[in-house]
Amino acid sequence: MTGAAPASEALTRLARTLLDQVEELVEDFVEELRAVEPYAAETVPRHVIRADARRSFLLILRLITGTPVPDRIAAVSSDVGRTRAEAGVPLDALLHAVRLDFRVVWQALYNRAQPADMASLVVEGPRVWEAVEQHSMGVLAAYQQRVLEMARAEQDERARWFARLLDSDGRHADVCRQVATVLDFDEDARFAVVALPPDQLTPLRKAQQRLSSRGVRLHMHERASSTAVIVQLPPRHTTGATQWFKGVRCAVGPVVRGLRQVPRALRLAETTLHVLPADTPAPHTTADLWVRVAATQLGEFAADLTDDTLGGLDTLANGDEVLAAVVSYLRTGSLADTARELYCHRNTVLNRLHKFTAATGRDVTSPPDAAVVALALAAREPNHPYP
């Protein structure tokens, strides 16, 4: 109310009278408050309500009269907002309770007014409301800030405990139990782990909303180069999590049983993420990409595999055509389908496969050789759309 004109003589006199009778206002407020939930259930201790009400009325009356407000009294708005947020009082119930102050103060002013004061009191009604509203807005701001702080603290705690689960690799039973408690997971449930690149946060939020609307529990965890989503599958859910992430570029690992298996599942999902086809806009499971995933685990031996398996291709004049036939055949498993895909005769395909065998010693119509060749192709060019 800074900058407002001074209160009228009648309002100032009546408000100063109430400053000496604050305990009566507190009793009236407590009586009014009994009908407001959750206060009726004693969510907030009665002695706290009384102490805060006392300071609140002192603040409001001092604002009305323009009397200096000591720091202890000025802090009541912030104190009420923060403590009620911590007690879990719903915001609408809190604001309703705070605005009861106007009814109590106005009724007390009216009861003490003389007939000659009435006209002035009516004119000054907005001043009383503005004092209460200033207190109310302070309570609201503090409440919202504290709710935000608590949400961040809860998120930080969830992240800390999940990080401990990863650090222990699921080997410590006490850590698994605590993580289950903090994340509200069933420790022995079935989990799907999804890894996403950083640029998929917007579609991820939509997927998160879809899951939350169905009551599916999940935890999102930021990693150095990806975002991990751990989804607890419902008890009777028989499929994976792919359908929940439509339109999201991500890697969905195999379903695992129990939180202790989640760290390993996350490593596998992140490995799968690193070998996703570059142009895919959709989720892929590890099952779709096992050959590529396996190729990433060859390490220093990848070059040995590719040289041993594919080195002979350099001796062929039409090596690109031969390789195209091999890749198509590995993908389709059919000479006829390969011929249609490459727009050539079946015998041409067969001839190219024979050339590949002659150059490399590997026959891709033989399952063991086909597996080795597929692995070698994936190791040589991880981002190429080989099978």
Protein model, in words:
The protein has 387 residues and is α+β, with helices and mostly antiparallel strands. Helix content is 60%, strand content 7%. It is built from 17 helices and six strands. Strands 1, 2, 3, 4, 5 and 6 form a six-stranded mixed sheet that branches. Strand 2 and strand 3 form a beta hairpin. Helix 14 packs across helix 16. The N and C termini lie far apart (73 Å). The model has no long low-confidence stretch (mean pLDDT 90).
Which structural traits does this protein have?
387 residues, alpha+beta, 6-stranded mixed beta sheet, 6 strands
Main pleated sheet? 6 strands, mixed
Class of secondary structure makeup? alpha+beta
Q: Kindly report how far apart the N and C termini lie.
A: 73 Å
Q: How many DSSP helices?
A: 17
Cα gyration radius (Å): 35 Å
Question: Which descriptor suits the 3D outline?
Answer: rod-shaped
- Tell me the helix content: 55-70%
Q: How many DSSP E strands?
A: 6
Q: What is the overall pLDDT average?
A: 90
Secondary-structure element series: HHHHHHHHHEHEEEEHEHHHHHH
Extract low-pLDDT stretches: none
Strand content: 5-15%
